[in-house]
Amino acid sequence: MTRDVLLPGATLGVMGGGQLGRMFVHAAQRMGYFTAVLDPDADSPAGRVSHHHIRSDYLDPQGLEQLAAKAQAITTEFENVPAAALEQLARQRPVAPGAAAVAIAQDRAKEKAHFMKCGVACAPHAVIETPQQLAAVADNLLPGILKTSRLGYDGKGQQRVATREELAAAWDVMKRVPCVLEKMLPLAYECSVVVARGQDGAMVSLPVQRNLHRGGILAITEVYDANVPAAAAQQAVASARAVAEGLGYVGVLCIEFFVLGDGSLVVNEMAPRPHNSGHWSIEGSDVSQFELQVRTLAGLPLTQPRALGPSIMLNLLGDIWFRNGGEQVPPWADVLALSGTHLHLYGKTSARVGRKMGHLTVTGASLEQVRSTARRCAELLG
Ligand code: ADP
Ligand code: MG
């Protein structure tokens, strides 16, 4: 849909009230937009900072009606927004990304099929939706990881399996919902790239991010010159662009990759929205992933982002509230006494082990300095 540019003063809507929505709202408001968030939770991180918060279920036609009445264009902050909700909104307002792209990203089997269609290599895998498909799994996919096709995140909905017996048992535990079995790959490291594509097809990308996961959850992202070899970085950006192009995508898209021992890249998954591994860009880049989301939604021009220096992002999980037995506030003042630390807390009402409560970005003049500050932060919080 070609349409007019929405200038500051317009209202931008977002489906979902989590931390990604909150940071989108912050970016939009900084630029002079009004914001409307739809989320059922009265205490949602984004709902609490938005000009308008529509408390309704994602599929409630009246709630969607209210969002479309308030907002001139609508985006989404988590990929499990029902496609039907985006379709209803799209009948009244521009919606970016579109329902079709979000539906593909919601389903690992469809997502992998799309990667292959775009000529982007993914891990050897098999779709398991029937007992026949389970029986037909090739031996070379084991050991592997059985992942539910839908609704997995932060390592949830996954089970490592070494034998056919373990595979069958794991599928039973998952109540035989549609799954993908992926071969377990020997990872040298992981990286991701955030691209933004405008309504006119113009694309820009953030620098490639190098990521460390712990227990299936992102723990650390590092961005600095040559954090990944140039050939891998080029391939990551080219792959992400091909995937976005193939979807006719409008908005911010993150693609995660595995890098194998020989330096080759295998795509892992995509997120049709800003991503945890791009949070460093709020302070570390001249244009953040959330500003890119605002620009693509409003139809503003995109400029190629530039890293301002090295950055390291540390995720703050609920675990650090429970370090010494009882619940206690982490030592924020000590962390903020170190220069170059930028604290983000998402305003979640209660800390829980494994829950993403916030993140900390460390910026500085040199990689050595940023690394040593990040290490000190980890000691203070660990
Ligand atoms: P989620 O949707 O929960 O983020 P992912 O599929 O990205 O799930 O898996 C989470 C993490 O588990 C990955 O970032 C990676 O560290 C590890 N992992 C996932 N699939 C594989 C694989 N095929 N081989 C090796 N490690 C994997
Ligand atoms: Mg992942």
UniProtKB/TrEMBL annotation:
<dbReference type="InterPro" id="IPR016185">
    <property type="entry name" value="PreATP-grasp_dom_sf"/>
</dbReference>
<dbReference type="InterPro" id="IPR011054">
    <property type="entry name" value="Rudment_hybrid_motif"/>
</dbReference>
<feature type="domain" description="ATP-grasp">
    <location>
        <begin position="112"/>
        <end position="298"/>
    </location>
</feature>
<dbReference type="GO" id="GO:0004638">
    <property type="term" value="F:phosphoribosylaminoimidazole carboxylase activity"/>
</dbReference>
<dbReference type="Pfam" id="PF02222">
    <property type="entry name" value="ATP-grasp"/>
</dbReference>
<dbReference type="InterPro" id="IPR003135">
    <property type="entry name" value="ATP-grasp_carboxylate-amine"/>
</dbReference>
<keyword id="KW-0436">Ligase</keyword>
<protein>
    <recommendedName>
        <fullName>N5-carboxyaminoimidazole ribonucleotide synthase</fullName>
        <ecNumber>6.3.4.18</ecNumber>
    </recommendedName>
</protein>
<feature type="binding site">
    <location>
        <position position="213"/>
    </location>
    <ligand>
        <name>ATP</name>
    </ligand>
</feature>
<feature type="binding site">
    <location>
        <begin position="268"/>
        <end position="269"/>
    </location>
    <ligand>
        <name>ATP</name>
    </ligand>
</feature>
<dbReference type="InterPro" id="IPR054350">
    <property type="entry name" value="PurT/PurK_preATP-grasp"/>
</dbReference>
<feature type="binding site">
    <location>
        <position position="147"/>
    </location>
    <ligand>
        <name>ATP</name>
    </ligand>
</feature>
<dbReference type="InterPro" id="IPR013815">
    <property type="entry name" value="ATP_grasp_subdomain_1"/>
</dbReference>
<comment type="function">
    <text>Catalyzes the ATP-dependent conversion of 5-aminoimidazole ribonucleotide (AIR) and HCO(3)(-) to N5-carboxyaminoimidazole ribonucleotide (N5-CAIR).</text>
</comment>
<keyword id="KW-0067">ATP-binding</keyword>
<dbReference type="Pfam" id="PF22660">
    <property type="entry name" value="RS_preATP-grasp-like"/>
</dbReference>
<feature type="binding site">
    <location>
        <position position="190"/>
    </location>
    <ligand>
        <name>ATP</name>
    </ligand>
</feature>
<dbReference type="GO" id="GO:0006189">
    <property type="term" value="P:'de novo' IMP biosynthetic process"/>
</dbReference>
<dbReference type="GO" id="GO:0005524">
    <property type="term" value="F:ATP binding"/>
</dbReference>
<dbReference type="GO" id="GO:0005829">
    <property type="term" value="C:cytosol"/>
</dbReference>
<keyword id="KW-0547">Nucleotide-binding</keyword>
<dbReference type="Pfam" id="PF17769">
    <property type="entry name" value="PurK_C"/>
</dbReference>
<keyword id="KW-0658">Purine biosynthesis</keyword>
<comment type="function">
    <text>Catalyzes the ATP-dependent conversion of 5-aminoimidazole ribonucleotide (AIR) and HCO(3)- to N5-carboxyaminoimidazole ribonucleotide (N5-CAIR).</text>
</comment>
<feature type="binding site">
    <location>
        <begin position="152"/>
        <end position="158"/>
    </location>
    <ligand>
        <name>ATP</name>
    </ligand>
</feature>
<comment type="similarity">
    <text>Belongs to the PurK/PurT family.</text>
</comment>
<comment type="subunit">
    <text>Homodimer.</text>
</comment>
<dbReference type="InterPro" id="IPR040686">
    <property type="entry name" value="PurK_C"/>
</dbReference>
<comment type="pathway">
    <text>Purine metabolism; IMP biosynthesis via de novo pathway; 5-amino-1-(5-phospho-D-ribosyl)imidazole-4-carboxylate from 5-amino-1-(5-phospho-D-ribosyl)imidazole (N5-CAIR route): step 1/2.</text>
</comment>
<feature type="binding site">
    <location>
        <position position="108"/>
    </location>
    <ligand>
        <name>ATP</name>
    </ligand>
</feature>
<dbReference type="InterPro" id="IPR011761">
    <property type="entry name" value="ATP-grasp"/>
</dbReference>
<dbReference type="GO" id="GO:0046872">
    <property type="term" value="F:metal ion binding"/>
</dbReference>
<dbReference type="InterPro" id="IPR005875">
    <property type="entry name" value="PurK"/>
</dbReference>
<dbReference type="GO" id="GO:0034028">
    <property type="term" value="F:5-(carboxyamino)imidazole ribonucleotide synthase activity"/>
</dbReference>
<feature type="binding site">
    <location>
        <begin position="182"/>
        <end position="185"/>
    </location>
    <ligand>
        <name>ATP</name>
    </ligand>
</feature>
